[in-house]
Each structure stands twice: as C-alpha cells, then as structure tokens.
From TrEMBL:
Family: Belongs to the GcvH family.
Any single GO CC term annotated in Swiss-Prot or TrEMBL for this entry: glycine cleavage complex
Domain Lipoyl-binding: 25-107
Alphabetized Pfam families for the sequence: GCV_H (PF01597)
HAMAP family: GcvH
Organism, as annotated: freshwater metagenome
Protein name from the UniProt record: Unannotated protein
Coiled coil: none
GO BP term (any one): glycine decarboxylation via glycine cleavage system
Keyword tags: Lipoyl
PROSITE patterns to which the protein is assigned, alphabetical: BIOTINYL_LIPOYL (PS50968), LIPOYL (PS00189)
The keyword Transit peptide appears for this protein: no
Length: 126
C-alpha cells in the first residue's frame, strides 16, 4: 500500500498539493502511488518559472524505465519555483516523493479547485 500523508491534498491524476506559505503558493509533486507505478524515474521535464499553468492541463513530463507520463497541474496559476535538483537526480522522486522529490511551486490565481482529501485518495489507490 502506498504512503498517503494526511497533510496533503491530491488529484485523481496522482499529484499532491501542499500549502507552502499560507499566502497562495502551493508546492506540487507526484504521489508515492504514481512513482511506484512508474518504476525507476530517469528524466523529468519541469515547467519553467513564469509559466502559466491551468488545473488539469499538462505542465511537464516524467520518464521512467517503463514509460513516459504527463504531469498535470493540479492548480491554475504561475510557476514561481521548480526543483532544479531533479535535472541531475530525477530518481529522488522515487525515494522521497513528498519531500526532496517535489516538482514545482505554483502561485494560484483565484480559488483553490476541488481536490481529494487523503481519505478519498487512499480509496482510489487501494
């Protein structure tokens, strides 16, 4: 069974969301379930700082030894930070998806979309 931290929100596409600062900036990444399904991650195409992203739209790509998958933005807003460490060490997503394996930070525009609670996400990944 995959790890589903209680302090995060989730999407059906297996991304997680963390309120970074209480001022509308949110850290995002892929879930433990997603990294496990992908297998060994070998490359990630990060969004660029300044990119405008839309909730539910593709904002990057992740490649593993098994497949290539799209990363969907869980929020609408502007990319204000990316995890540049993933350029040289994308495998960190496998070992620490909720910590050092974060992907980007988004400054949201407007209201937060409906996201899954940890309990709801755990149900769909059970």
């Amino acid at each position: 069974m995959s790890n589903v931290p209680a302090n995060l929100s989730y999407t059906k596409e297996h991304e997680w969301v963390l309120d970074s600062n209480g001022a509308g900036t949110f850290k995002i990444g892929i879930t433990d379930y997603a990294q496990e399904a992908l297998g060994d991650i070998v490359y990630i195409q990060l969004p660029k700082i300044g990119d405008l992203v839309i909730a539910g739209a593709v904002c990057g790509e992740i490649e593993s030894t098994k497949s290539v998958s799209e990363i969907y933005s869980p929020l609408t807003g502007k990319i204000v930070a990316v995890n540049g460490d993933l350029d040289s060490k994308p495998e960190v997503i496998n070992s620490d998806p909720y910590g050092h394996g974060w992907i980007a930070e988004i400054q949201i525009e407007g209201a937060l979309p409906a996201l899954l609670t940890p309990g709801q996400y755990a149900e769909i990944t059970a």
